[in-house]
Amino acid sequence: MHISRPIRWLAVTLAILVGLSFGFYHFGLDWQNEPFCHKQIMMGFLTWMDANGMHSTDDNNPFPNVGGVGRDSLAAIHKEMGEGMAWTQDYRYVPGLRQDDPGDLVLMYFDRPTRWTAHILPPTIFSAKEWIVIPVDFASFGSRAPLGPGENSERVSAEEFKQRLKKTIDYIRTQQRPNWQTIVAEQTKFLESVDQADR
Q: Which H helix or E strand runs over 47?
């Protein structure tokens, strides 16, 4: 049976397009270091406040602070997150903050640079790696304009990340929030590790 030339060209063109699509999907997109849903994290904190007798609409509610230890404090919202807390392995949490603190202070951050901006759209391997911070105002409350794109978060440069985390550490120290010594020590240690890695 003889296949006409146009059909052969069509088959070859389709094969090339499928191959290119497959290659781009597997090798052109960065599937590593995907963040969790930050809207879900925000709702977890607000639900935790309601469950603990606070009203999420009040401005002065404290975020969880269990002995000033980030991981233990973040674990306080496990019920509100449906008990699924595997995502916390990729994040650092800064205890000692309240809803009425300056909105640009860092409540949480992805613990390494990533090409992702939000969990919904994989970036290409050509995107620059930056840091993701979840600020106190979740980049959506108040009048402050977010400094970068994100889903209730901000994607920022390494320099901006370090400045913001240092500002947050200094704020907690000067406000002498509960367990501030532990908080400052833990966050300063991480900040110093980032400085070491940048050298």
A: helix 38-51
pLDDT at 43 over 80: yes
Residue 123's alpha-carbon distances to 33, 109, 150, 187, in angstroms, are 11, 19, 13, 29
pLDDT surpassing 60 at residue 25: no
pLDDT at 125: 82
Q: Helix and strand tally (H, E) in the chain?
A: 5, 4
pTM of the model: 0.84
**Per-residue pLDDT at 58:** 67
Of 51, 59, 57, the closest CA to residue 76 belongs to 51
Helix, strand, coil tally for the chain in percent (to 5): 45, 10, 45
Q: 74-99 burial, b for 16+ CB within 10 Å, e for fewer? A: bebbeebbeeeeebbebbbbbbbbbb
